[in-house]
Write a structure and sequence with these properties.
This is VOC family protein. The protein is built from three helices and seven strands. By secondary structure, the protein is of the alpha/beta class.
């Protein structure tokens, strides 16, 4: 017997607004019954677990111990620019001169996530 991951839960101050940000990141809709002010909101991913946003009273105070890593459909650098325009904040640059590496961003509530190289970025590096 095994357990199946149902969702990835993200504690936050404003579940609906943070879910709207991640809906923009992933291009996937919010749960159809979710509305502003809801203490729990979900982003319905096409595959895999749901992103579940749970409103909590305490603020984020330290670095995440678990985070999402995104592999964009476009180039990593274009995706970083798009995510910054959605409201992400730049945290750290781990890109290497050979094109490998990743960029660390944070969502509007400070939760860090990584943007990896796209498949096309990786293919271009290894023709």
């Amino acid at each position: 017997m095994v357990s199946v991951v149902q969702n990835v839960a993200i504690d936050c101050a404003d579940a609906y607004e943070l879910a709207r940000f991640w809906s923009g990141v992933t291009g996937r809709p919010l749960h159809p019954e979710d509305e502003p002010g809801e203490p729990e909101t979900q982003v319905m991913l096409a595959e895999g677990p749901i992103l579940h946003f749970n409103q909590v009273p305490e603020p984020k105070t330290i670095k995440n111990r678990i985070h999402l890593c995104l592999r964009p459909e476009t180039s990593r650098d274009r995706e970083v620019e798009r995510l910054l325009s959605l409201g992400a904040a730049f945290v750290a640059d781990h890109r290497n001169p050979d094109g490998s590496g990743w960029v660390v961003l944070a969502d509007p509530e400070g939760n860090e996530f990584c943007v990896l190289r796209s498949e096309s970025d990786r293919a271009a590096a290894h023709p």
